Amino acid sequence: MVRVSACALALCLAIAASSRGVDAFVVAPSAGGGVSAAIAARAAAAFVPAPLRSPSAATALRMSDDSDSDDGDSSSSSATAGSTLIKLPDSAVEVVIPIPPTATQAAYDRAVTEISKTITIPGFRKGAKIPPAVVENAVASRGGGKNALREAAVNGLVGQLVEVTLKDEHELDPIGQPVLNPGIVEVAETFVPGEALELRVKCDVWPEIGWKDAEGQEKPYYGLKGSYKRRPFNQERFDKAMSDLQERYATLSPAEDGTVLAMGDACTVDMVGYMADENGEKGEPLPNAASGDDVEVVLGEGRYMAGLVE
């Protein structure tokens, strides 16, 4: 069995806890079979934190020991179990992500630290370590809600774990935005720092298509038949679409002098609009109104202010 000094263990755990996304340190023992603070310090100095690669935000400490590998006494602590993929109808899936107690506590502590930086609480200097209960009460008293800290913690876990779990663990390419179900507010109601948590995420994915080999056919998708539900014909929508197309692609042709304009006709006019004062006389110019020479006006209801076309 590898002997670990108290100082070495404390140093490794302290650095691991402060490094986001760290799952484990692997530290080789010294010739005497132990791990000293100096060895741990060198391992920590050479360590570069990597991005989070699994839905584990907990820290495990593994000690490698070739000499004791055969006695069955060497062990490692698992951070968390893997997530579960559940296939749903209509090309949808649900992924159940278990969150270990250490991760919920770490997420809550981070939320407390971040929110503490943004508020001022009487009796505590800025930047001081404030008890979580005091921070929660302060946020709630300022309209943030009683579960604001817990919602922030859950939101942090979602941001850390959902995307990497879908893509790295299950190789999913979601269509649209994955949805937490129940949502963050509901999850925060049952969230307890230091206790295990379960996140359920639903998302649409690309359908899996399996081709059946057909004898004599180079392309198996030839000759496939599908079914669909025919919608009833909507004459009103058809007429509206036709009218819009006719208006959009209409061409103008000159009219004879003296022609009386009708709805749908176009003309060019010289115009300036004014507000009427209390005596009915010309007042201030109309704001944001078309004005000038050779302004094209298409006669139609709802295009301009009431009374202009008439």
From TrEMBL:
<dbReference type="Pfam" id="PF05697">
    <property type="entry name" value="Trigger_N"/>
</dbReference>
<feature type="domain" description="Trigger factor ribosome-binding bacterial">
    <location>
        <begin position="86"/>
        <end position="216"/>
    </location>
</feature>
<dbReference type="GO" id="GO:0043022">
    <property type="term" value="F:ribosome binding"/>
</dbReference>
<dbReference type="InterPro" id="IPR005215">
    <property type="entry name" value="Trig_fac"/>
</dbReference>
<dbReference type="InterPro" id="IPR037041">
    <property type="entry name" value="Trigger_fac_C_sf"/>
</dbReference>
<dbReference type="GO" id="GO:0051083">
    <property type="term" value="P:'de novo' cotranslational protein folding"/>
</dbReference>
<feature type="region of interest" description="Disordered">
    <location>
        <begin position="61"/>
        <end position="82"/>
    </location>
</feature>
<dbReference type="GO" id="GO:0044183">
    <property type="term" value="F:protein folding chaperone"/>
</dbReference>
<dbReference type="InterPro" id="IPR036611">
    <property type="entry name" value="Trigger_fac_ribosome-bd_sf"/>
</dbReference>
<feature type="signal peptide">
    <location>
        <begin position="1"/>
        <end position="24"/>
    </location>
</feature>
<keyword id="KW-0732">Signal</keyword>
<dbReference type="InterPro" id="IPR008881">
    <property type="entry name" value="Trigger_fac_ribosome-bd_bac"/>
</dbReference>
<protein>
    <recommendedName>
        <fullName>Trigger factor ribosome-binding bacterial domain-containing protein</fullName>
    </recommendedName>
</protein>
<dbReference type="GO" id="GO:0043335">
    <property type="term" value="P:protein unfolding"/>
</dbReference>
<dbReference type="InterPro" id="IPR046357">
    <property type="entry name" value="PPIase_dom_sf"/>
</dbReference>
<dbReference type="GO" id="GO:0015031">
    <property type="term" value="P:protein transport"/>
</dbReference>
<dbReference type="GO" id="GO:0003755">
    <property type="term" value="F:peptidyl-prolyl cis-trans isomerase activity"/>
</dbReference>
